Amino acid sequence: MSTVGDAWEYLTTWENWTGTAGLTRPTFDGGWRFANDSIIALGIEHLYMTAAAVAIAAAIALPLGVYLGHVRRGAFLTVLISNVSRAMPTLALLTLFAASAIGFGNRAVIIAAAIFAFPPILTNAFTGMADVDPDVRDAATGQGMTRFQVATRVELPLAVPLIAAGLRTSAVQTVATVPLAALVAGGGLGVIINTGIATQRYGQVLAGGIIVATLSMVVDALLGRLQRRVTPAPLRASSRVAS
Amino acid sequence: MSVAPDNPWLSWDYLERNGSEVWLYGTQHLHVTLQAVGIAVLIALPLAMLARQVRWLSGPILGISGVLYTIPSFALFALLAPFTGIGRTTVLIGLVAYALLVLVRNMVVGLEGVDPDVVDAARGLGYGRIRLLLSVELPNALPSMVAGLRLATVSTVALVTVGVVVGYGGLGQLMFRGLQSDYRAQIATASLLCLALALVLDLLIVLAARLAMPWVRRRTS
Asked: How many domains is chain B built from?
């Protein structure tokens, strides 16, 4: 089929990876942006947006989830947040933000992606802390540990596998969300697909789909490895944690 | 920009003037969701039962569905569009694929989680494999299946909007056009309707599940 041929040609043309004039372009206000015609530049931008979104989400969700899990309050709240975020279409948030004061472009996308990255981190941090065996907590308290010590030296290490799983889920999901940025004039790898559809170059569309799908699988696999590594050795045997 | 026209997020006027269009896209959204989830259930059920009967298949089925689930929806529509064209078919195939992954996963997990003692008891009573599956294992796995169905339905409602990529996104179409013409009321109305649709469908499934599983209600209340 010629579409597959076109996709192959797109992927094997070196210029499509490096761009016709380097990885960056000057903007009118003297700054720079990532070049639109380079897979590498768009990929870097994609990863940057993902990292920014997950970092923002983690900065808020991790302390909150760990604290709520430690005091075992707010289970209802975490469930509610994750349910509502599942029902909320990404496109809805993106378009709402883009049409609001936040405006078009990457900032709106990063904020929207951060909101969707939030629930998995929160839920897993909460569950990880709250589900620590009460006997273990009791034993720690019995040894004279303070509440803070119980939280940081007993509960947190035991919660690490779940917290890592939450971060992984969240990151992979964000990698998958960021392509939608192309619809609201943002960057990232979605641009390849969007441009392809707009110009009816379906080979390019297919190539973009392959690139994005590959990237998310690679990120998933890498983070899966990382997740295993940060899991304390004694907990690894039962590392089939729900993600 | 000097004289900014009034551009409210919520406007009754918008609904009055464009009610028929909102209704059109809303029903399109609903139809595509129901169709996708329906087809996915019809495919997932035999697959899950097959995985239950042929044990060595359950590993690969769960593994493959996990890997496929990491493919972003935007990319999936892009992968399909060159072959299935632009429009309803592509969106439907993509939605069915995602719903299928969620459903099969939950069904297999549900079937595997059935208490072995219960299965043993039924076998001791002389139940054959098929009868065991239909009248013991399936009802016992129902809570997990319902959980999967809820998840699949709610995420399908949200996913339909990504169909704008190929020009068939239901309410997403309204959001996207609202964005292009900077019409806030259109975006906000479509977003709220989307949320409402997901919540209503979720509620309907919960109610139906309560009716179908009187024993669960008795246990929890």
From this structure: 1
A153-to-A129, A149, A165, A230, B89 alpha-carbon distances in Å: 12, 5, 20, 15, 54
Counted domains in chain A: 1
Q: ipTM, 2 decimals?
A: 0.78
Residue with the two structure tokens 């994005």 = A212
CATH number of domain containing A191: 1.10.3720.10
pLDDT band, residue A241 (cuts 50/70/90): very low
Question: Is the Cβ–Cβ distance between A166 and A121 less than 8 Å?
Answer: yes
* A141 pLDDT above the threshold of 50: yes
| Residue A47 in tokens | 């990863």
User: Which residues of chain A are at the B interface, by a Cβ-Cβ cutoff of 8 Å?
Assistant: 1, 3, 7, 83-84, 86-93, 95-96, 98-100, 172, 175-177, 179-180, 183-184, 190, 193-194, 196-197, 202-203, 205-206, 208-210, 212-213, 216-217, 220
Taking CA atoms, what residue in A is nearest to B109? A242
Residue B87 lies in a domain: yes
Find the residue in B nearest to A96 (Cα). Answer: B187
- Of B54 and B25, the structure prediction assigns the larger pLDDT to B25
Domain containing A218 equals 37-238
Distance (Å, rounded) from C-alpha A216 to C-alpha A205? 17
A23's torsion region: left (phi>0), alpha (psi -120 to 50) or beta? alpha
Domain that holds residue B132: 29-169
In this structure, what are the phi and psi dihedrals at residue A25, rounded to the nearest 5 degrees? Answer: -125, 145
The reply to whether A213 falls in a domain is yes
Distance from B8 to chain A by nearest Cα, in Å? 11
